[in-house]
Amino acid sequence: MGFVVYSRRGCHLCEVLIEQLLEELGGDQLPEVRDIDTNPEWRKRFDTRVPVLEYDDRWVSDYPLDRAAVRDCLGNVAR
């Protein structure tokens, strides 16, 4: 699976979180970005919370990005 960012178009905070996440990933992997407005279930679940970052279907961070939590996820993959 990997990292998934729940986002929406025009969301500045979403763009910032994705940029910071890409810095942490260092080109090793790309997150899947899901536009919550394309899926009623996602919109209901995340409407006012975006951006939301998950890893393997588990919550990792909202905005601002929790860089330590991202590193923990990456560390668990390396083990």
Molecular structure report:
The protein is an alpha+beta fold and 79 residues long. The chain has one domain: Glutaredoxin, CATH 3.40.30.10. It is 42% helix and 23% strand. It has 3 helices and 4 strands. Helix 1 (12-25) packs parallel to helix 3.
Domain count: the total is: 1
- End-to-end separation: 16 Å
The CATH topology comes to Glutaredoxin
Secondary structure: helix percent: 40-55%
Major sheet details: 4 strands, mixed
Evaluate the radius of gyration.
Answer: 12 Å
Beta-strand percentage? 15-25%
List the total number of helices. 3
H/E element order? EHEHEEH
CATH architecture: 3-Layer(aba) Sandwich
Annotation, overall tally of beta strands: 4
Task: Give the class from helix and strand content and strand pairing.
Answer: alpha+beta
Biggest sheet, strands in spatial order? Answer: 2-1-3-4
Let me know the average pLDDT: 94
Low-confidence stretches: none
Large-scale geometry: globular
Under the CATH scheme, which class?
Alpha Beta
Task: State the CATH superfamily name.
Answer: Glutaredoxin
